[in-house]
Amino acid sequence: MNIILLGAPGAGKGTQATKISERYHLPHISTGDIFRANIKNQTEIGMLAKSYIDKGELVPDEVTCAIVKDRLTWEDCKNGCLLDGFPRNTFQAEELDKFAKIDAVVNINIDFSLLMDRLCGRRVCKECGESFHVSTLNGATTCSRCGGELYQRKDDNPETVKSRLDVYDAQTAPLIDYYTKKGIILNFTGTEAPASVLFEEVAAVLDQKIR
Ligand code: ADP
Ligand code: ZN
Questions:
Q1: SS (H, E, C) 163-191
Q2: Residue 158: its pLDDT value, please?
Q3: Fewer CB in a 10 Å sphere around the end CB: N or C, the chain?
Q4: How confident is the model at residue 211 (pLDDT cuts 50, 70, 90)?
Q5: Catalytic residue among 36, 88, 118, 123
Q6: CA nearest to 31, candidates 1, 12, 4, 2
Q7: pTM for the full model?
């Protein structure tokens, strides 16, 4: 079972991805995480990706598609995977169709007015990738899940967030239509409720498909 997670930046894809990946034993493949690991290790891909990510623009399709195509050949993907943050435009979706069969697309719709504050207040665990919001941390600087150090992503600032949301609107949102036409989209609504509430809804639907 290959599943795509679709949704605007800040919609909660990462948190849902962790939970879906655990429940259905699917490797969580996040292109954003792959790029950030490359930036940290100062690889060639990392250097290139950084210039786009810092501006809130998409990393070029050829690079991104090649990374995902290779990743899907790994042994852990033989029973499927969970793609988070890929595809992000129609070109990537069409490329993906050439090397993988997608069974379901979990689409998280969310009111854009919630996103600026969510993203700019977001703190992420360096170890496990879990996200938190400053307003709930009470000054804590470590992850309540694994004890890892929390940090603020460089692209979680108002200017970059604005351009990420514009990119989502212009390039990624059309994928909702793309997958609706294929009959594989599953629509959900993100709210201010805890992520576990949304996950219960998602799991109820995925259980029907997977088990
Ligand atoms: P978010 O969904 O919060 O924006 P991600 O971690 O998915 O965060 O992505 C961070 C950045 O990495 C994006 O703004 C973009 O620059 C780059 N990126 C991630 N996935 C892709 C992709 N599929 N194609 C092009 N660029 C990508
Ligand atoms: Zn953690």
A1: HHHHHHHHHHCHHHHHHHHCCCEEEEECC
A2: 95
A3: C
A4: confident
A5: 88
A6: 4
A7: 0.94
